[in-house]
Amino acid sequence: MSTQTLPDVDTRPESTDETDDDSPKMFHYVRKNKIAESAVMGTHVVALCGEVFPVTKSPKPGSPVCPDCKKIYEGLLPGE
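Structure (tokenized):
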């Protein structure tokens, strides 16, 4: 097991919209302090776009991101 440092932003992409081969169609931005709880406890998170889902996958570089989440995220001021 290795330890990773998360970015200093308050959100990070997480997946939803599963495809038939169990890979997500896109990833959504959610509050990073809710990711571990959702992954361990199975609780649901709310994405910036309003999508509600449990965290099941982590994004890889180049993964598709929800356009609504991305637009909202880019409009946030630092620290929001």
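Confidence is low (pLDDT under 50) at residues 1-9. The first strand starts at residue 11 and ends at 18.
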